[in-house]
Amino acid sequence: MRTVQMELLRPGELLEEQKRISLCYLPVGPVEWHSYHMPMGTDALIAQASARELAQRTGGVVAPTLFIGTEQNDNPQMLTNLNVPHDENSYILGMDFPKNILPSLYFREEVFAVVVREELRLLAKMGYQMIVVVNGHGAQGQVSTLRRLCDEATHELGIYCLYPEFESPRVEKIIREARMSPGHADRMETALMMALTDSVALENLPERSQPLHSADYGIASGCQFAGEAPKDGVVADDPRDASAALGRAVLDADATDSAERILALYRQHVENR
Q1: Which end of the chain is more exposed for a tag (fewer CB within 10 A), N or C?
Q2: Domains of the chain (ranges plus CATH)?
């Protein structure tokens, strides 16, 4: 197949591939603040790239990416962990910290659910027997909503809808060896985007000798979110240490591990039912 992108395929090509394997990937992610060095569409673009990598390994197609996402008010403990100024009445959504120069485009959770549910219904109507939702945004509200929508689609649309939450031994090995702590707009996400686009501008961040504070730049490492790093607000896994080679290695590793699991589930839930 000349491309896996649904929007670039003609009707006959879509039908031909669907007869071979009735599998469609749906990438989802918001337009969200990713500091001064990263594009606002980072989450959705990573989801889109991951879906393409998977489709190239498993067959099937990638539906047009949904640049939508949802968030919730941050709990005070997380803001304390990140050393973001707040009081007991603070209402800070996701990574929209007070010093950011632009807000993210977070959908209300109920609107987000309606859009994704309708997209799943339309893909099922098009004839796809298995739909894999590829999520680029780790907010709890978004994750729980997508899990629920996949479960609904499986039981109500007569298809198999998967929200994959696979462990990837290959990715875990890279994380250990590189001593990463994946979070938001830090080394991991920056590396992934460097592998995908020329839209990363590390020169928009200060020189390497200057520490980055989460409150000032809207960047955070996983250990900070978890409260396992010093609460001085300094980003532990610095995006200025990222490289395109690291990002490409992570993409390849994740797709290799996940493709095997997805094909096994396709055989179980589609071919053998």
Answers
A1: C
A2: 19-259 (3.40.50.10310)
